[in-house]
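Request: Have a read of the protein record below and say how the chain folds.
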Amino acid sequence: MHRTPLPHALVLCALLLPAAAFGQTESRIVVKAGRKAPPAPAGDQGAPRLVVLLVADQFRAENLRRYAPWFSSGGFPRLLSRAAVATGHYGQQNTYTGPGHAIIATGSYGYLSGITQNKFFNRRIGRSEAMMFDPEATILGEKEGGPEEETSPRNLVGSTLGDQLRLQQPAAKVIAVALKGRGSILLGGHLGTAYFFSEQTGGMTTSTYYMKTLPDWVQRWNARRLADTYFGKKWERLLPESAYTAQDASPYEMDIRGLGRTFPHPLTGKLSAPGPAFYEVLTHAPAGLELQMDFVLTALDAEQLGRRGTTDLLGISWSATDLVGHAFGPDSQEYQDIVLRLDRVLAQLLQELDRRFRPGEVLLVFTADHGAAPIPEWMAAQKVQAGRITKATIKQTVGKALSERFGIAGDWVVAAEDPSLYLDEKLVQKAKADPAEVEDAAGRAALQIPGIIGYLTRTQLLRGWLPPTEAARAVARSYFPARGGDVVLITAPFYFWGKYGEKEQGSTHGSFYRYDTDVPVILSGPWFVPGHHGTIDMVDLAATLSHVLGLTPPSACEGRPIQRLLK
């Protein structure tokens, strides 16, 4: 495991820094205009002209081997044949999209970066919010939304790889693209620009954190109405059905707005003309990959990335793999198909990069933010203990126990944002109880629920009173005091709760079990030693890339360059 000092680092932060230090960053960092950076040399292990950072949202390490027989020659096989390859391991509990992208970009776990969950309970305001929600930023072209919106990186503490590139080379551009807001926002960092898909308009957009109006080239791309051209079409299998390893018809799969559970999947959203429901459906289909690819190629040319005498960074988070995995499960025909489609999109990207750049001018990284759990009902059918846990079950069980223990009736759990329970501070005060005692009683009560096998309390995490286990280390790495709950629950393998615990179909991720933590890492370019290099800690990736680029690593980076990967 990695050499990261965790519990004591948490304690020192809590003791030595004022409370405000754990809050939101105050404002966007401003890079002042300076001298133009000298041209970056190309090839012969000089600085690349372009860094392409590809993140497949929800993509296990095993996928490269599992689906290899059906890959095209120009996609993953071509990339793997000339790259340094490793299995990346996330040593944290909260393997979600936000925390995963944050680690890739910063090289630090959530206890430092502040990005520990996709949602958290904001005690100051008294409501749950998206981790990337910023009340001072709104999405361009959309009706103003609420705290579920993802609009800026202000909650990200510290700098990213892209930030460090721009701080050292102010002329550099950092452009990030995803369907999901949090995927592009975290890859873009504080100083880059993030573009993401609008399910309201069917176009690509950004937020007022980055700009007041969309650039002309984005407006022209949106005016093409490319998303609308998919209306009424069907998502068919890429290959003959005999090539797929799972059965198509499964009662455990979700039906997203009329998309259906079996091939072919109609792309209408149950509408008579393109609209928000239809645009949501597109993100759960290969159309989402194709839309992103078209926008990426447009951005490459419009922004002249890698052609301006400096090193630029292009981040692409492929969101469709995650959305399909959630809806149909990671072992479905649909998920296999979206992986094969990603392979074809990758082949197209590699071909386009070859057309635009000479050998040695592009550094390309492919990785993922997390894996996924099998659908629990399917696992149970295989006689393996598995299941979903609802928030209502947790709240009722914990609330009943605390009411009986302390003699105060009420809603003791004010919010449940997996994996954290937030307790009502007013009830704790009314009971005149020690908060540590209440936290422990809540955790003990949760252990009555099948599938919950452990817990850690806020008091334990702040004071470093942790058992010497990998589970405790993983939880501590994912705990940021200002946004963390009072009790962090630990589930058994193949059990989960949260958004997908409330449903009867689909699956999710978010544990420290290997199906969630192990992802591929592929590093392509003349800076790396080809071949397979075993397992690496994901916090080392940002440090390794910083070394190649000659940058100071991101501010809170815990990793070190992986020397065996480097020439």
Q: What stands out?
A: Residues 333-356 form the longest helix (24 residues). The longest strand covers residues 50-56. Residues 387-501 form a domain with the Gyrase A; domain 2 fold (CATH 3.30.1360.150). The two ends are 24 Å apart (CA to CA).
